[in-house]
From TrEMBL:
<protein>
    <submittedName>
        <fullName>Transposase</fullName>
    </submittedName>
</protein>
<dbReference type="Pfam" id="PF01797">
    <property type="entry name" value="Y1_Tnp"/>
</dbReference>
<dbReference type="InterPro" id="IPR036515">
    <property type="entry name" value="Transposase_17_sf"/>
</dbReference>
<feature type="compositionally biased region" description="Basic residues">
    <location>
        <begin position="215"/>
        <end position="229"/>
    </location>
</feature>
<dbReference type="GO" id="GO:0006313">
    <property type="term" value="P:DNA transposition"/>
</dbReference>
<feature type="domain" description="Transposase IS200-like">
    <location>
        <begin position="9"/>
        <end position="124"/>
    </location>
</feature>
<dbReference type="InterPro" id="IPR002686">
    <property type="entry name" value="Transposase_17"/>
</dbReference>
<dbReference type="GO" id="GO:0004803">
    <property type="term" value="F:transposase activity"/>
</dbReference>
<feature type="region of interest" description="Disordered">
    <location>
        <begin position="210"/>
        <end position="229"/>
    </location>
</feature>
<dbReference type="GO" id="GO:0003677">
    <property type="term" value="F:DNA binding"/>
</dbReference>
Amino acid sequence: MARLARLTVPGYPHHIIQRGNNRQPIFADDDDRRLLLKLVEQNAKEQGVAVHAYVLMDNHVHLLATPETGTGVPRLLQAIGRRYVRHFNDRHGRTGTLFEGRYKSTLVQADRYLLACMVYMDLNPVRAGIVASAADWPWSSHRHYVGTLPDRLVTPHPLYWALGNTPFAREQAYADLVAAGIAKDTRDLLTDATFRGWAAGDAQFLAHLGEHAPRRPSPKSAGRPRKLV
């Protein structure tokens, strides 16, 4: 069966996951992490991609980003992969591939899932048992949104600005969202949509998106059951 083309539509937020090949670590130390974030910042600007949130795990990376063009996301990931892998291999005396062949991504209905996706990403290190709270993990955009460490890589989405009329109100509202956590069904939906390549949204959103997307944003519904005679 032909491989499903990635769904990339300008102006919509995309949840992106890039994993290490065979789930191997993609960072050896904090210098590697700092370089990857620098590459994301540089290439996102060049490709017209607004990065709303991120988290670096030991063997994978999450990004939540909105591209200005249909080529912004793939070109961003291609540029990062090419430069980072060369650096990593040279620095650590290795050869061969580092990342899994294809990054995974899904297009997200902003008003329904964008903030939930940010919370999902922030809590990844907590679910993995690395830290006790999202604020304890230095390699995510969480601290930017709760006001403890500004991050020039991050471009807040308008839905974040709508959380409050002052910086403190927004920061507290977002911290409360993270403290409340994310429902398992929402987490599972975002995970499944990202790895399968289908958009995450309600029926109305998917129908509207289908009129503009380069391919179907969701699987075909099953046909009507056959009548028994």
